[in-house]
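Morning, I've got a small favour to ask if you have a moment. It would help a lot if you went through both lines with me. I owe you a coffee for this, so here goes:
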Amino acid sequence: MSGHLSLDEEVRLYATNAEREKYSLLATLFGIIVALDYLERAYIRDALTADEYSPACTRLLSQYMTMLKLVKDSVPSIEQFMAHYRMDTPAALHRIKVGVPATVEHSSEAG
């Protein structure tokens, strides 16, 4: 055998700085989606007030939109991204599709 495989050797996801940046951006997008899902679930369980929830949700949605622009070449759709990385975050997906916090969504439905 010509190649020696060391179990102590670090396996790299990337070979170039551009690839490293790509994976870093994808990881950030993943984190935003997970955070949004936790936020939605906390609000649903009444662990947050509307005054705490709304600005946090607006900020995460804004961060999501910014990240999506940065990774548009790697992420054809949010559904495909979530399926590829086996994300089970239905509350986040719903909030992303609606695009506004639940407090805004439900106040516009009532009025």
